[in-house]
Design goal:
This protein has about 290 residues and is α/β, with parallel strands linked by helices. The chain has twelve helices and six strands. A hairpin with an 8-residue loop joins strand 4 and strand 5. Pfam families: DUF5753, HTH_31.
């Protein structure tokens, strides 16, 4: 948690508090079970201080939490490097990835569903290698002396992230794409044609829902910028909205924010083309129609 955003500390603390009360324990009783002072439990639950994965494991054991996926999720939120498969691969890129990007990937790897509005580029989970390289070059090119090496590492990370759509169970992705995403020629005509073809393929996957928001829809609630909503099957209290900026990301956790962005996304889906119409529209663009 040293580099994690405060939202993760608070969400982790809130979930641990709910599990403690569900176990019928006071904070003092929980502290005695694990050999701590009561104030340490309170600081963890309020998000006032970070907590080591080993301490989270002690608390989960004390509360009798047996759900393996919930335990793993909470341990990841605490910064655990343990676990296999897709959940921790990004640690190999610690020297390249900013802390906020690592946090985004860790949430993405554990989420059960992702809803996103994209206004400029294709979602990272659906980008071809060539398209990803062009987008990343535009974002990081010239920022440091090792730009080429950093570029390739960031492209590799973006492609590795796409495994969340192929695991069992896969991440459920629902994306609304502004028409500008499809019209902006990134990487040249051939790269863009292959990218549009990739979107058509992705739209056929049962875990992916794509909708195009045409220019004809006029002004809309998402005109101020893109956003992502992560949802978790085990507990909605961990749901979070992410607003991405050039050098940082903003995490919104308040229920009012979650409700506002959920309602905004639902409104965008209503104004967008249906998934079937969207697939036909993208296919037509890919075919040069």
């Amino acid at each position: 948690m040293q580099h994690g955003p405060a939202v993760r500390r608070r969400k982790l603390g809130a979930e641990l508090r709910a599990l403690r009360t569900g176990a019928g324990l006071t904070s003092g009783e929980a502290a005695r079970l694990v050999g701590w002072h009561q104030s340490k439990v309170s600081r963890i639950e309020t998000g006032a201080s970070g907590v080591k994965p080993a301490d989270v494991r002690l608390l989960l054991d004390a509360y009798g939490v047996q759900d393996a996926r919930l335990r793993e999720l909470l341990l990841v939120l605490a910064g655990s490097d343990e676990g296999g498969g897709r959940h921790h691969w990004w640690h190999a890129y610690r020297g390249v990835l900013p802390p906020t990007y690592r946090d985004f990937i860790s949430l993405e790897s554990q989420a059960s569903a992702m809803r996103t509005l994209e206004t400029s580029v294709v979602p990272g989970l659906l980008q071809t290698p060539e398209y990803a390289r062009a987008v990343t070059r535009a974002a990081v090119g010239g920022l440091d002396d090792d730009a080429d090496e950093r570029l390739e590492a960031l492209v590799a990370v973006r492609l590795a992230r796409q495994d969340v759509l192929r695991v069992d169970p896969p991440l459920e992705l629902s994306a609304v794409l502004d028409e500008a995403v499809l019209r902006r020629e990134i990487g040249g005509p051939e790269v863009m044609a292959r990218q549009l073809g990739r979107l058509v393929e992705a739209a056929r996957l049962p875990q992916v829902r794509l909708q195009v928001l045409p220019f004809a829809a006029g002004e809309h609630v998402g005109i101020t910028g893109p956003f992502v909503i992560f949802s978790f099957s085990r507990t909605s209290d961990l749901d979070v909205v992410v607003l991405d900026h050039l050098t940082s990301s903003l995490y919104l956790e308040r229920k009012e924010d979650l409700q506002a962005y959920t309602e905004a996304f639902n409104a965008l889906r209503i104004h967008a083309l249906s998934p079937e119409e969207s697939m036909d529209y993208i296919a037509a663009l890919a075919g040069g129609a």
